[in-house]
């Protein structure tokens, strides 16, 4: 199998697609490719078998003119170090569906939740879809939006990206945008997600390093992954395309990152039985993910009654930030160790859609490190 060089795959500046994740748990290392469709990946045969009920609905025999297809019962995945062919996201209109994205890893770097803390006030200000700062319980530093840049009038998404999201992220590492798509579109996405939930395709959230059977003690969500191309996911695809557009407008101005890819969308549901997700970091070990983007779908959410708050503990600060999972709210934050966070117990059904964006350089280093470790000879010990 030919491998495309790491440098070639990191060279582009558009949002390239990357498919190097276990479909069940999101693990990046020692992946196996499905021998039937050759498009999906797993970290072990056990995870491939566990995901087969869902995967078989989209698994189609790859073209193999040189050999006979294997029976389904004897399919074995082919080991690979690279995942699929990268594709370039083209500029979309407001009605275009999003392109294929790659699988995300689940979170690691777990630590015990803190005993307490003081809520960090005046940190972030919600902004509306049109680009103006809205009234919010999280009152803070308002950001005045200019109507022009370099003598040219900006579109509302550009204004929102350049005059609000970029400065807010670079200053705080966290940014909230309310009324992102509007009520009608938000409700249509919620309808898609509820219908998807009813199909039974959601499974228990997994951990990258699962050393015990106590996963549910760490995270209690049910999840599924989507590229947006599956039947019934058209509105989710539209959301992903709008996320892509927003990040594209910010690209090159978010820290020192050069964003060139993203994951599939992780659709998550906390069933409302008091489950949450203990304090963790999305990307503790430099796997390439730089920005976490979450869209919330919870109509008339009351945090005091329903719980489910996302609490972020910004690095080197004694305070924390509470983000309520309100309907049509979009949240950005740095994915690395600067933002440990937890989902507090939810007592009502709580839906969210998460996408992670990759920094090209960090992602390339992570792949090169992995490939180097695979090629290095095992060390010898001498008596």
TrEMBL record:
Annotated protein name in UniProt: hypoxia-inducible factor-proline dioxygenase
All copies of domain MYND-type, residue ranges: 22-59
Reaction catalysis annotation: L-prolyl-[hypoxia-inducible factor alpha subunit] + 2-oxoglutarate + O2 = trans-4-hydroxy-L-prolyl-[hypoxia-inducible factor alpha subunit] + succinate + CO2
Region (Disordered): 45-156
Compositional bias (Polar residues): 67-78, 95-111, 125-139, 146-156
EC number: 1.14.11.29
Entry keywords, A to Z: Dioxygenase, Iron, Metal-binding, Nucleus, Oxidoreductase, Vitamin C, Zinc, Zinc-finger
Positions with biased composition (Basic and acidic residues): 84-94
Gene: EGLN1
Top EC class of this enzyme: oxidoreductase
Family matches, as PROSITE patterns: FE2OG_OXY, ZF_MYND_1, ZF_MYND_2
Cofactor: L-ascorbate
Database matches in InterPro entries: HIF_prolyl_hydroxylases, Oxoglu/Fe-dep_dioxygenase_dom, Pro_4_hyd_alph, Pro_4_hyd_alph_FE2OG_OXY, Znf_MYND
Subcellular location: Nucleus
Cellular compartments per GO CC: cytoplasm; nucleus
Superkingdom in the source lineage: Eukaryota
Pfam families associated with the record: 2OG-FeII_Oxy_3, zf-MYND
One example of a Gene Ontology biological process annotation: cellular response to hypoxia
Keyword Nucleus included in the entry's annotation: yes
GO molecular function per UniProt: ferrous iron binding; hypoxia-inducible factor-proline dioxygenase activity; L-ascorbic acid binding; zinc ion binding
Taxonomic source organism: Oncorhynchus kisutch (Coho salmon)
Occurrences of domain Fe2OG dioxygenase (ranges): 261-359
């Amino acid at each position: 199998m030919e491998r495309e060089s790491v440098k070639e795959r990191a060279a582009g500046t558009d949002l390239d697609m990357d498919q190097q994740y276990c479909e069940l748990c999101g693990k990046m290392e020692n992946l196996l490719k499905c021998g039937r469709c050759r498009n999906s990946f797993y970290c072990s045969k056990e995870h491939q078998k566990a995901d087969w009920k869902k995967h078989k609905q989209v698994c189609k025999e790859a073209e193999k003119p040189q050999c006979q297809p294997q029976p389904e019962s004897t399919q074995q995945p082919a080991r690979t170090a690279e995942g699929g062919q990268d594709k370039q996201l083209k500029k979309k209109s407001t009605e275009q569906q999003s392109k294929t994205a790659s699988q995300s890893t689940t979170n690691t770097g777990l630590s015990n939740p803190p005993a307490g803390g003081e809520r960090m006030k005046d940190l972030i200000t919600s902004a509306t879809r049109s680009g103006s700062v809205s009234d919010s319980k999280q009152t803070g530093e308002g950001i005045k939006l200019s109507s022009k840049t370099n003598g040219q009038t900006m579109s509302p998404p550009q204004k929102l990206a350049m005059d609000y999201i970029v400065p807010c992220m670079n200053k705080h590492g966290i940014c909230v945008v309310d009324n992102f798509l509007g009520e009608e579109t938000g409700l249509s996405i919620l309808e898609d997600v509820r219908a998807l939930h009813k199909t039974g395709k959601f499974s228990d959230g997994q951990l990258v390093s699962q050393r015990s059977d106590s996963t549910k003690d760490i995270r209690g969500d049910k999840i599924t992954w989507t590229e947006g191309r599956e039947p019934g996911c058209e509105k989710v695809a539209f959301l992903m395309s709008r996320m892509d557009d927003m990040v594209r407008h910010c690209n090159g101005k978010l820290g020192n990152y050069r964003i060139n890819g993203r994951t599939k969308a992780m659709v998550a549901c906390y069933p409302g039985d008091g489950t949450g997700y203990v304090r963790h970091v999305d990307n503790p070990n430099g796997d390439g993910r730089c920005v976490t983007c979450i869209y919330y779908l919870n109509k008339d959410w009351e945090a005091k009654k329903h719980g489910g708050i996302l609490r972020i503990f910004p690095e080197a600060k004694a305070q924390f930030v509470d983000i309520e999972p309100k309907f049509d709210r979009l949240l950005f934050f740095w994915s690395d160790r600067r933002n440990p966070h937890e989902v507090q117990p939810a007592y009502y059904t709580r839906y969210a859609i998460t996408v992670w964006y990759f920094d090209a350089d960090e992602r390339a280093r992570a792949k090169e490190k992995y490939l180097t470790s695979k090629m290095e000879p095992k060390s010898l010990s001498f008596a």
